[in-house]
Amino acid sequence: MTAPLLSAQALSKRYGAIVACRDVSFDLSEGEALAIVGESGSGKTTLLNLIAGALAPDAGEVVYRLRDGATRALSSLSDAERRGLMRTDWGFVHQDSSRGLRMNVSAGGNIGERLMALGDCHYGRIRENALEWLGRVEIAAARVDDQPTAYSGGMRQRLQIARNLVTRPRLMFMDEPTGGLDVSVQARLLDLLRGLIADMGLAVVLVTHDLAVARLLSHRILVMKESQVVESGLTDRVLDDPQAPYTQLLVSSVLAA
Amino acid sequence: MSALRVDELLRVEGLSKAFTLHLHGGARLPVVHGVAFSVAAGECVVLGGPSGAGKSSILKMAFGNYLAGEGRILVADGERVIDVARAGAREILDARRRIIGYVSQFLRVIPRVGAIDIVAAAARESGLDRAAARERAASLLARLRVPERLWSVPPATFSGGEQQRVNVARGFAGGHRLLVLDEPTASLDVANRQAVIDLIVERKAMGTGFLAAFHDDDVRARVADRIVDVSLFSDREAA
After folding, report:
1. In angstroms, rounded to a whole number, what is the distance separating the alpha carbons of residues A105 and B88?
2. Are A180 and A164 within one domain?
3. Which of A12, A36, B114, B159 is the most exposed place for a label (fewest CB within 10 A)?
C-alpha cells in the first residue's frame, strides 16, 4: 500500500498556558476531502496552520509524500523546499481573500504569478492559462485585467481558487472558503469546488463551521472541541448518527432550511 | 470471519442499535437487537413491521450511514467479505462506489446541479465514462417518466414525486450488486410506482440483491421474495 499523501501525527500546540491543539492525528489520501468542524475557538484554524506548515507544532509531526514519491517530515524540509511545495503542490484558499490574492495586481497577474514562480516566462502562454482558469471558475474573460478590488466577494473567492489550481496542486487547504458570502453566492462556489475537487482528484483539508458545507464537500470529518478531536469518521455517519455529546449538540443546533 | 454462501450478497448477524441521547441526560433509546437475515443474489428481502420498529435504522446501518451496535453486517466483495459494522470510513466509501447503493426517501438536492448530472455522476462513480454515464442517466430518467424538458434543471423546484424519481434513477445508475431501498415509492402515484417495480424486477433478474422497506402493500407484493418482520427484533412498543 502506498503511504498516505499527508499524515498528521500526534500534533500539539500551545500558546503560553493555552492549549490550542491537543494530540491530533489523521491520514489523508489523494482525492480525499477531510472537513474539520467545530465552533470558533475550538482549534480548527490552528490545526489547519499546523498541517499547512504555517505554524510549527510543539509536539508531533506532519509527514507529506512529495511528487517524487519520497515521504518527508515537514520539519525536515528547507525553507526553499517548503516554499516550493506551497507554490506548486499545495493551494491555500483563505476566508479573507486579501490574504490569498494580491489586491493591486490584475486578475490575470494573480493567476500567472504561480506559473512564473515555476519558471514559466512565456507571456502569451501565461495569459492563455489565466484566461482558461478564469473560464473554469466562471469569471468573464473581459475581467482579466481588473484588479480584485473591483471584484465582488464571490468572484474574489473564485479567483483565489483559480490562482491556486493553475499549478495543478495535489492538496488544497481551505479556511472557511464560503464564510461571509451571500447564500446564493455560496451555492455557486460550493458547486464549483465540488466539481473541481472531483475532476482534479484533489485532496482537501477544509475548515468550516458550516455542517452543510462539510456534508457537500467532504468524505470524512473531524469534530473539534476545546482543541481536541471528539469524534471522527465518515461525514454522513457523523452528521446523521453523531455519537459524542458535543457532536450531537452541534448537529441539533442547526436550523433546517 | 465466517464465509458467505456463494450466492449470498449480504448477511446480518446479531445486529443491535441503540441511541444515546446526550442532550437528554444520556437517555438510552434501544431500537433493535439480535437482527439476523440474509440477502442472496437476485433476491428482494423486504423489512416489514410497524412504523418505529427500526426498519429504517437497519437499512441505514447496512449502508454505513448509522453506526452499528453489536453484531455483523457482512457484504460480499468478490472473494472478500466486508463487515460494514466494523469497516473504516475509506472501506465504506469504497464499498458504496462499487457494491452497495442506497435510495433514501427524499432527494438531497445540490444547488445548481441539473437532474441528469446528478444521475450521471452516480453512473460515473461506477466507472463509466462521461458519455456512457449520460446515456445511462437519460435512459433511467426516461423510464422513470421524468419529462425530458426537466433533465437539465436542478431538481430543487421539482415536485416531491419528480424529485423522488430522480433519486431512484440516481440509486439505480451505479450498477451496484446490492441495493438498499428506504421507502422509495412513498411519494409516487400508481404509474410511477409501476415504473419503479419494473426496474426492481429487471435488476433482480440480472442478479442484483435488494434490501428494502416499502410503504405500499402492492409494491411489496410485486417484488418481495421474503419478508423479515422487524418487530421480532424491536426494542420498542409498536407505534
Report:
1. 46
2. no
3. B159
b/e A83-108 (16+ beta carbons within 10 angstroms → b):
ebbbbbbbbbbbbebeebbeeeebbb
Q: Are residues A7 and A25 in the same domain?
A: yes
Q: What are phi and psi of B197, to 5 degrees?
A: -60, -45
Which ranges of B65-159 does DSSP label H, i.e. alpha helix? 89-98, 115-125, 130-143
Rounded Cα distance between B80 and A112, Å, is 49
Its CATH architecture, for the domain B42-67+96-232, is 3-Layer(aba) Sandwich (3.40)
Cell numbers for B221, please give them.
407484493
- Domain residue extents for chain B: 42-67+96-232
Q: Other C-beta atoms within 10 Å of A113: how many?
A: 18
Three-state DSSP class for residue B196: helix
- Structural domain boundaries enclosing A133: 97-168
Cell of B236: 420498542
- Region label for A42, one of left (φ > 0), alpha (ψ between -120 and 50) or beta (otherwise): alpha
Closest Cβ opposite residue B65 in set A216, A236, A252:
A236
Task: Check if A241 contacts B (Cβ < 8 Å).
Answer: yes
Instruction: Return the closest-CA partner of residue B173 out of B142, B150, B152.
Output: B142
Residues 54-93 of A with CB under 8 A from B: none
Q: Is A201 on the interface with B (CB under 8 A)?
A: no
**Helix, strand, coil share of chain B (percent; to 5):** 40, 25, 35
What CATH number should be reported for the domain holding residue A223?
3.40.50.300
Mark whether A79 and A204 lie in a shared domain: yes
Question: pLDDT tens digit string along B158-196?
Answer: 999 999 999 999 999 999 999 999 999 988 999 999 999
Residue of chain B with shortest Cα separation from A222: B89
> Predicted ipTM?
0.94
d(CA A94, CA A207): 10
For residue B89, the chain A residues in CB contact (below 8 A) are 219-220, 233-234, 237
Q: Using one digit for the tens of pLDDT, what is the confidence trace for B85-112?
A: 999 999 999 999 999 999 998 888 777 8
In this structure, are A65 and A179 located in the same domain? yes
Cell of A250: 452541534
Q: DSSP code of B216?
A: -
Instruction: Please determine, for residue B238, whether its predicted confidence score (pLDDT) is greater than 80.
Output: no
Q: Whole-model pTM?
A: 0.93
